[in-house]
Structure formats: C-alpha cells, structure tokens
C-alpha cells in the first residue's frame, strides 16, 4: 500500500485543479427494524489525487487525502456528478436508484433515500464557496414527478452552461439551464430517435419500431406482485429495453461550434419491449447521438446510431439473464485534446439483495470501460479496453477478463517525472475509472515491491500480494489500453499462469472510497476487509486547459472499408448456422460485421487487425517502429508509451506488457528483460547488464548511465540509489546500496555480509574484497581502509583513525627470525633531557664512496648453545 501522510484530510476547502469528486452508497447502520441506510454516511467527497509521490504500480494508495464529504442526510443517494465552468466549480449530483430503492413499513421512503426536500428526480447543487448542498432542479415530464426509478447520469456543456440529464423512468433526456435550474425541454429517443436515424456502421438511413412512454405507469410500492418492492427492480418502473437511457456525454468539436449529445441506450432481457423478438442489433446496447443547436436544443433531423457495444457474454445462459453486455452508465470525452477520444463505462445493472448484503446493488465483475477514437470519416472505432482491477473472473467463467468497472470514468492530469505532483501542462494523460474489487483476496493488488496479483494464499501474502478489499478509483496512464477481446479470455482457464497479460492494473493507483485511516493515522482494520463492491458510483475531475485545435487528419484513425450488407465470410471449420447465427455465439452480423470479431475487413485487414497504435498504417506507422526492422516480440507486446523505441533491432519486450519508461529508453543489450513489470529505465541510456538482470525493487534507477547489474538478481536498495562508479557490482546477491548515495569503490568490491551499510556516505571498500563485520559497522572517517580484508570492526560503530597511508615501495622481508629478549627492559628512572638548541645542519654534502665495501662473514652470537652466522649487511 502507498502511505504518504499521517492522516487522511477531510477539511472543508474548495476544489482544486486535478482533484476528483467520487460518489458512492452511504453505507448501512442498525435500525429499530433491522439494517437501514446510514444517514451520516458519505455519498460523495473530493479525493485529492494530485500528489501520489511514487509511480503507479498496482498498489493500494491507502491514505489519499479526502475533503468536503457530503452525507445521505444532506442529499440522499446520488450517482451522477458533473462540475460547472466556475472557478472553483460548483458540483451537481443526481438522485439515483443504482444503489437500490429502500422503503420502511407503510410504503414510505427510508430516511436517507432522497435527502430533505428532494425526491427521485432531484438534481443537487453543492456551492463552490460555502459547500452548502441544496436542491437545484426537480426533473419532471410535463409536470409529472418521477415515481421511483430516478435519474441516470448527467453531462455538462461549459460553452453554454447546460446540464443534460437522463431519466431512468421516462427514458427522456432533459436539458437544464445551469444558471437557473429551469427545464428547457427534453429528447424522446423512444419515439423521435428511433423513428429516423443514420446507422453509422452501415452508412444507411434506418428506423426502428417506436417504444413510447406510458405516463400512467408508476412504481408499484404497495402492489408489487413479483415480490418485495425493494428487491424487485421490475416494480421500480424503469423504462423498457430500447428506451432506457443511462450514460450521457456532450462533445463540442474543437475549432468549431458543432456539438452533439451522445447517449447510451440499454437493451437487455427482462425489461419489457419484447426483447426476445427484437432485431439482433436492437438486442444490444448501443451509443446514439443527436445534434444540438447553437443554444443546446435537440435537432430531431440529426440522429445517429454511432455504434453497438461489442459482446461481453457469449454463453447462452449469460445472454439469457443479462443480454450481450451490461449497460453503459457513463460517457466521457477528453475535452483538452485535439484527438477525439471517447470512454464508455459500463455498470452491472440494477438489483437489490438487501441492505448489509455483500454485492447487493449490481452484478459485479461484468462491466468494462472501453476506449473509442474517431476515424477520418467521423465514425467512432473501438481501439481497446482498460483492465479494471486485478480479479479476472476465474471463479465466474468466460470471459476471463478484468471487468470491474462500476460505471464512471474521467480524464485527469499526468504527473511530474518524480510523481510528486500533477503536471498542469499534461491534461488528459491519466484516466480514472470507478471500480469494484480493484484489490481483493481473489485478485490481490501489489504490496510495495511485491508480486503481481494472483489468487491470494499464505505464500502469496508472504511474497508481497495485498489482499485488502479496495473498491473505489483506479488511475492509470491513458494509453495503458488492452485488447478489446483477448482470445485467452474466451478459452479454457489455463492450469498455470493467466489467460492473457493485463498490464493496466500494474500501472495503476488503487484508491478505496472509504477512509482507511483514523484521525491519528492508524489503520481502520474493518475497512481493509469489508467487501464494498457495487457501492461505487461516478467520478468527475476538475481540469483547466486551453481550447484544443481541430484534429489533423493524421491524428484520426484510417477509414475502414466496410463489407456489403448481408455478405458473411465463412471461415473454414466454422459452421455458419451453428456457430455464427445462434444466440449462444456471436450472431451472423455481430460476429463478422459489427463486432470486428472474424470479418476479414475488420479483424484481418492490414489496417484494422494490427492497428491498436496504427502499427502498419503506411503513414502513421513509421514514427513508431524505430529502427526500421524492429519487431514486437513476444506476440502481444506494445510500444508504451507512444514514441518509445526498440533498440537495438531484435530486442524483446519481456514480459509482455513491459513498458519503456521514460520515453526514449532502450533495451540494451538485445534480449534484456523488464522485470518486474512496471520497472523503469532511468536515466535514458541505462543498460540491462547482464542479459536477464532485474530491476528490484520496482522503481529502482540505473545511475549513472552505463551502470550494470552484476550479478543477475542483484537488488537496488533503497530506491533511487546510483551505481557508482560505472562497473561496480552487487556482490553477493541480495546486497544493497545503503544508505542512499553510498558508492561501490573500487569497481569489483563486495558488500559482505548482505545488509551491511556504507557509512558514512562516501566510504570506500579497500582493498577489493574487504568485508564489513559486523553488518552495522561503520567506515569512519570516510576513506578509511580495512586491512587485512578479513579485519572486523568491533564493536559496531568503532572508528579507524587516521586513514592508513599506503606504501609506495614493497617491504624488505626478514630472512631470519627476530631475537626474543630474555630479560625485561630497564625502565628509565629519570626523564630524557630535551635538546635546548637546534641541530646544526650540514653545509656540505656527504662524500659518496667510489668503491664497494668488502663483504665478510663474521661469527654471530651464541644463542641457546648454537653458533649463528650473520651476513654483513651493506650500509
């Protein structure tokens, strides 16, 4: 987990650029008749995501600052959130049934359901300055109040100060003046939208049977024949399939006044409107749009069905209960970018298993967040999917995806290179997604420097997996997009490993919506183990940026030639009736035409098949594959971030999902490996040596450029420490740079035993091979030398002074043993007399002898009865 401050901050202050507002269910308290809504529980708060202090590595950010909490007693239960154009912004929240409908005996709404003075159709406004929450608008249809299904989501047009809100009961979209709260009209998709529209995927004008709203309908609070009202969504009076609208989003084209309202139509079984008998396309949820006039009014002559959502479920039992995919609860655009990018975030539908029941309000692990980009013809094309959370549905069955979306997404700022704070010059560089089970025992996230999340066990916890329950926000780089439908997700779950490599969670911050620390900074243990899945709502992020320019054609995806309507390409080995025309598979059109599954033009076309980052487009590919001839190896690897280079040719991305950071870093030598995933090349020019060396812990840095990991498996500890001098080695395995800034000198010196510290910083191992014993011993002063190499500092902390002076000439070795004295020396009884006058210096040089001395052998003294001969020594 990431722990950066001593306490979580819940102070009253205005919203700052880069902060997020997150909605969620308020929680449960004990009432007289059992579990009840907690009126003091938080339903929304500002989350400060500006200063993480470390790279995103799939860890639980445990003490993110939060402030300005809004409670159920103030506004009731809310889902949608938008920010207006004020500085700082006012915050708008929409009432919801997404967290269930809750009543008390007698058929009255439970306290905390709607808020004082509010109801199912209320939009609330939180004043930017004072923080006071009050009803802003009551959404009605021609004076008729919402009876219970409540509102869907909202979108805000800053250019004309307009709020668009979907009504889950009537199926209408209302436009509300954000300055006054006045309802200026509504859009009826069920009749006006379906009557005549352009189907973008086929390029043809089309129509569908109308689905009208019955104004006499109502929520059946007291007469629900299907079961208890609270637990029976069929009695809540939700709009029928094909008319029910949830997510909405406004886009104003950069460099023009052209604006459109995009909205998500929810289609699925069990919601009326004869879903079983509908057209195959109409059975699937879709994103539509309607043109807006200069003042924000709806243009009924400009209606488009933009795209149908790709199938998530492929097995008959799942399609029968849930349809082909879950509804889209949020549509968002990158308002600061010229390149048109759309995010659609799904949520697991509506249900209510009862207050206090785990996963009560939706079907978890069945919802995606998808990324679409515009092509040169103005159509939206799917480019990928964000993996949300670490759990991959291995307990739930096909598809084995990380599909934990809770129905909210927003673009946020990127960060400075040290992740100390946001980079105000980099808006839209991060994506923040609301999610369930971001970390959990079934899909633990990473503990600091720990292993990748897998099903938790005692050994996994010991290895560094974090099984905490984390439900809230996942933040990751906007380009950390995975495959739309990885093939491994639809095959049998492997006995070893994972169905596919999901790199997104390993590059993410994971934030729990609840406070995880108390006022003193101590962990609140129950917050780490409570399963709050399905309690999370929507998110909005305050961002300020200049108006973007119009996109260049090279910034748009290439146009894809579409096949003839009705022409289905049969693939060898596929029975066209059994596998491509039944509800259990894809459907003939959906498999080979709309979903881009097996159609040769969508799936295997040279532009479409291999283009997540335009890899084989003739024009757009060249800037990305560098040098010419470089390869993506192994299959599935990607250029991340965009602009990174494969150097030298033939180098491999290992493991799949590894990332070039910072941009411009290179694989040297060929075959070097990024381990663990998410490790960073810093600074540019650093080398992986030898091949197979590993960045441990993640976030460690090669300093200076050219430093080498020797031997394999050596560890950088602590982070950010440099390899100095170039060529120094970590020996034995497990030795670390401690403290930060310590230096290996000379090259080849060893740290023994592992864990010993360089103290003070700058101390040197001399001679090479010297050993620090005990481990806590200190080199003092800096530069002191240990001789012989096996010498020991005892006690720990002892100091060697002064530094030993090295001899420049070799010592003369004695040829005979020294004579041992047999009697003690006589101690002098009087002090020596000090010389009172200086010595006279010789004024003439000594005369050097011109002839050599004659060597002679003389008898030595008798020692122990033996005669010892001593050679005459030259003078």
Provide a short characterization of the protein structure.
This protein is mostly beta strands and 875 residues long.
Question: What are its keywords?
Answer:
mainly beta, five-stranded mixed sheet, disordered N terminus, 875 residues, six-stranded mixed sheet, 23% strand, elongated, single chain
Question: Could you walk me through the main structural features you see in this protein, from its secondary elements to its overall organization?
Answer:
The structure is a single chain. This protein has 875 residues and is mostly beta strands. Helices cover 4% and strands 23% of the residues. It is built from five helices and 37 strands. A hairpin with a 6-residue loop joins strand 19 (244-252) and strand 20. Mean pLDDT is 77; it is low at 1-11, 450-458, 563-664, 682-692, 717-722 and 858-869.
Rg value: 36 Å
Instruction: Let me know the number of strands.
Output: 37
First-last Cα distance? 75 Å
Contiguous helical run count: 5
Strand order of the largest sheet: 18-17-22-21-20-19
Strand content: 15-25%
The chain-level mean pLDDT equals: 77
What oligomeric state do these chains adopt?
A: single chain
For the sheet with most strands, the description reads: 6 strands, mixed
Question: Which structural category fits the helices and strands?
Answer: mainly beta
State the shape.
Answer: elongated
Which stretches are poorly predicted, pLDDT < 50 over at least 5 residues?
1-11, 450-458, 563-664, 682-692, 717-722, 858-869
How are the SSEs placed, and which strands pair?
Elements: E1 20-24, E2 28-31, E3 34-37, E4 42-47, E5 59-60, E6 66-71, H1 72-75, E7 78-83, E8 91-95, E9 103-104, E10 108-109, E11 122-126, E12 133-138, E13 151-157, E14 162-167, E15 172-177, E16 183-188, H2 189-195, E17 197-199, E18 204-206, E19 244-252, E20 259-266, E21 286-292, E22 298-308, H3 316-322, E23 328-333, E24 341-346, E25 369-374, E26 380-386, E27 405-412, E28 414-415, E29 422-423, E30 430-439, E31 445-446, H4 458-463, E32 465-466, E33 470-477, E34 509-512, E35 536-541, H5 588-594, E36 857-863, E37 866-871
């Amino acid at each position: 987990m990431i722990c950066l401050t001593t306490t979580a901050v819940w102070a009253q202050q205005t919203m700052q650029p880069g902060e997020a507002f997150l909605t969620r269910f308020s929680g449960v308290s004990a009432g007289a008749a059992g579990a009840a809504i907690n009126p003091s529980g938080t339903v929304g708060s500002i989350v400060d995501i500006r200063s993480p202090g470390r790279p995103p590595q799939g860890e639980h950010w445990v003490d993110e600052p939060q402030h300005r909490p809004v409670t159920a007693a103030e506004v009731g239960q809310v889902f949608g959130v938008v920010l207006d154009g004020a500085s700082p912004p006012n915050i708008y929240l929409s009432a919801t049934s997404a967290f269930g409908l809750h009543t008390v005996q007698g058929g009255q709404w439970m306290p905390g359901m709607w808020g004082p003075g509010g109801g199912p159709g209320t939009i609330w406004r939180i004043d930017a300055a004072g923080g006071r929450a009050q009803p802003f608008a009551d959404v009605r249809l021609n004076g008729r109040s919402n009876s219970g299904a409540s509102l869907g989501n909202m979108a805000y047009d800053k250019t004309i100060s307009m709020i668009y809100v979907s009504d889950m009961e009537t199926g209408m979209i209302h436009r509300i003046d954000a300055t006054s709260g006045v309802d200026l009209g509504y859009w009826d998709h069920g009749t006006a939208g379906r009557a005549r529209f352009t189907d973008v995927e086929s390029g043809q004008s089309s129509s569908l049977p109308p689905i009208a709203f019955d104004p006499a309908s109502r929520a059946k609070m007291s007469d629900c024949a299907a079961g208890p009202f609270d637990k029976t969504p069929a009695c809540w009076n939700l709009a029928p399939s094909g008319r029910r609208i949830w997510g909405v989003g406004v886009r104003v084209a950069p460099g023009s006044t052209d604006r459109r309202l995009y909205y998500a139509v929810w289609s699925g079984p069990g919601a009326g409107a004869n879903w079983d008998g509908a057209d195959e396309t109409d059975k699937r949820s879709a994103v539509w749009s309607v043109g807006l006039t200069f003042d924000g009014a709806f243009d009924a002559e400009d209606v488009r069905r933009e795209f149908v959502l790709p199938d998530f479920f492929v097995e008959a039992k799942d399609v029968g209960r849930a349809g082909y995919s879950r509804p889209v609860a949020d549509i968002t655009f990158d308002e600061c970018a010229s390149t048109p990018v759309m995010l659609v975030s799904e949520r697991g539908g509506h249900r209510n298993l009862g207050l206090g029941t785990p996963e009560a309000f939706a079907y978890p692990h069945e919802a995606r967040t998808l990324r679409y980009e515009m092509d040169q013809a103005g159509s939206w094309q799917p480019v990928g999917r964000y993996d949300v959370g670490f759990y991959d549905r291995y307990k739930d069955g096909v598809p084995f995806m990380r599909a934990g979306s809770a129905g909210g997404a927003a673009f946020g700022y990127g960060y400075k290179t040290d992740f100390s704070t946001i980079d105000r010059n980099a808006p839209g560089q991060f994506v923040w997604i609301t999610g369930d089970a971001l970390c959990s025992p079934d899909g633990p996230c990473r503990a600091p420097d720990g292993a990748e999340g897998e099903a938790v066990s005692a050994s996994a916890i010991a290895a560094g997996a974090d099984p905490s329950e984390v439900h809230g926000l996942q933040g990751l780089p906007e380009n950390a997009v995975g495959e739309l439908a990885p093939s491994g997700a639809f095959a049998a779950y492997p006995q070893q490993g994972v169905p596919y490599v999901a790199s997104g969670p390993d590059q993410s911050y994971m934030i729990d919506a609840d406070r995880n620390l108390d006022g003193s900074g101590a962990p609140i243990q129950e917050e780490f183990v409570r399963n709050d899945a399905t309690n999370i709502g929507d998110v909005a992020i305050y961002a300020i940026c200049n108006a973007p320019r119009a996109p260049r054609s090279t910034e748009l995806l290439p146009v894809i030639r579409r096949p003839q309507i009705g022409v289905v390409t049969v693939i060898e080995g596929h029975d066209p009736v059994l596998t491509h025309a039944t509800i259990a598979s894809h459907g003939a059109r959906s498999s080979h035409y709309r979903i881009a599954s097996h159609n040769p033009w969508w799936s295997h076309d040279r532009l479409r098949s291999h283009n997540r980052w335009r890899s084989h487009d003739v024009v757009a590919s060249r800037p990305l594959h560098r040098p010419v001839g470089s390869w993506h190896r192994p299959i599935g690897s990607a250029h991340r971030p965009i602009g990174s280079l494969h150097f030298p040719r033939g180098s491999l991305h290992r493991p799949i999902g590894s990332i070039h950071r910072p941009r411009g870093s290179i694989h040297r030598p060929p075959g070097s490996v990024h381990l663990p995933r998410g490790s960073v090349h810093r600074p540019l020019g650093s080398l992986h040596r030898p091949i197979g060396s590993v960045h441990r812990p993640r976030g460690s840095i090669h300093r200076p450029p050219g430093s080498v990991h020797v031997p394999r498996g050596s560890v950088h500890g602590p982070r950010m420490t440099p390899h100095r001098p170039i060529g120094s080695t970590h020996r034995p395995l497990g030795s670390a740079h401690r403290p930060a800034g310590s230096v290996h000198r000379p090259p080849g010196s060893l740290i023994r035993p592992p864990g010993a510290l360089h103290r003070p910083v700058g101390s040197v191992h001399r001679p090479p091979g010297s050993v620090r014993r005990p481990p806590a011993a200190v080199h003092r002063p800096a530069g002191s030398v240990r001789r012989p190499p096996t010498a020991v500092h005892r006690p720990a902390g002892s100091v060697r002074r002064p530094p030993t002076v090295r001899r420049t000439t070799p010592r003369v070795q004695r040829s005979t043993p020294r004579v041992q004295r047999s009697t003690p020396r006589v101690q002098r009884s009087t002090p020596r007399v000090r010389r009172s006058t200086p010595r006279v210096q010789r004024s003439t040089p000594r005369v050097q002898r011109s002839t050599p001395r004659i060597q002679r052998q003389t008898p030595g003294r008798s020692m122990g009865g033996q005669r010892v001969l001593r050679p005459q020594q030259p003078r």
